[in-house]
Amino acid sequence: IGILTVPLSKNEYYVYKNNKNTYFNSYLPNSYVKWLEQSGARVVPIPFNLSEKKLLSILKQVNGVLFPGGGVDRNTKSDFEKYIKSFKQIFNYAIQECDKGHHFPLWATCLGFEFICMMPYDMETVIHNYKNNFLLKRTAARGHNVHFHLSKDVKNPLEKLDCDNKITKKAKIFMNHQYGFLVEKETIDVLTKYLDIISTNKDRNKKEYISTIKFKKYPFWGVQWHPEKVAYEHKDTHIEHSLEAIKFAGLWSEFFIRECMKNQNHFKNKELLINNYPLHYEKDIHNKKNN
After folding, report:
1. β-pair partners for 67
2. CA distance 200 to 202
3. Which of 21, 89, 94, 139 could in theory staple to 203 by disulfide, Cβ–Cβ 3.0 to 4.6 A?
């Protein structure tokens, strides 16, 4: 499974404290890697600034792609636009493959969720909408644990994995976003042309927003919440680590991997696997601007 990296601001590039002063211009939290690996997947990091040719060569080898959450600098124009361009290339590739009858699933979390919901539009429209919040609105949902709430008349996608919805009914999900798609006519009229709303939730101000979606025609899922954090991130004390929450997050991992197993791409270049990349811990890096 490929994971697209998220660009850092040019003012916040990080340097690894070693003799070579290795700089980073993008990042990939390892909780996403672990969330996929727990269901048997192998992970291929996809740097956001790859050339179109190199990106295509990876897409032809993987069985699906995940777009992680995080923060993106809207004002670092070249990196921001390159990130959107790579996101768009992956999205278009997946559509083309599915239209040819080749199952190619996509998963998008938080930041990725926000972008995938706008991907049916051209790149310039996506950038304009994201920078100017045409559809995205402010939400009071940072560090917020809420119950998973299925939309009316929607079947649980985990139906085969969660007998009688026992886990779903008890589970809480972790929200950590400041922007979201509110459940209001303007937004709903736009988004529901091409996607189905699986779940909604309310922020601390009781504003209802979309929390889980699936594209109508394609095996593309998006979640505003963070299934990867409940089992694998412990620095943020707001995250609830209940057994029910961990089980629920794990079911979504298994669900997505089962979808990816329907894809018939064959992996060839083992050097692309994430185990060929060094893992850097937060305590071992520092901000370049603080040097």
Report:
1. 108
2. 7
3. 139
Strands 2-4 and 44-46: parallel
Strand 2-4 and strand 65-67: the pairing is parallel
Question: For the segment 120-165, what is each residue's pLDDT rounded down to a tens digit?
Answer: 988 787 877 777 777 889 999 999 999 999 999 999 999 999 988 8
Do the beta carbons of residue 22 and residue 288 sit within 8 Å? no
Backbone angles phi, psi at 55, to 5 degrees: -65, -45
Catalytic-role residue among 110, 117, 177, 260: 110
- Find how far residue 209's CA is from the centre of its chain: 17
211 CB-contact burial (10 Å; exposed 0-12 / middle 13-18 / buried 19+): buried
What digits encode the pLDDT tens for the residues 58-114? Answer: 999 999 999 999 887 766 668 888 999 999 999 999 999 999 999 999 999 999 999
- 117 labelled catalytic: no
CA 230 to CA 248: how far, in whole Å? 10
11 vs 38, which has greater pLDDT?
38
Residue 130 backbone zone (phi > 0: left; psi -120 to 50: alpha; other: beta)? alpha
pLDDT, greater one: 115 or 19: 115
Cα 65 to its chain centre, rounded Å, is: 9
Nearest partner of 181 among 170, 168, 192, judged by Cα: 192
pLDDT for residue 241 is more than 90: yes
Nearest by Cα to 40 from 228, 249, 258: 258
C-alpha span between 174 and 243 (Å, rounded): 14
**How far apart are alpha carbons 134 and 267 in whole angstroms?**
39
Active-site residue flag, 226: yes
User: What's the DSSP call for residue 244?
Assistant: H
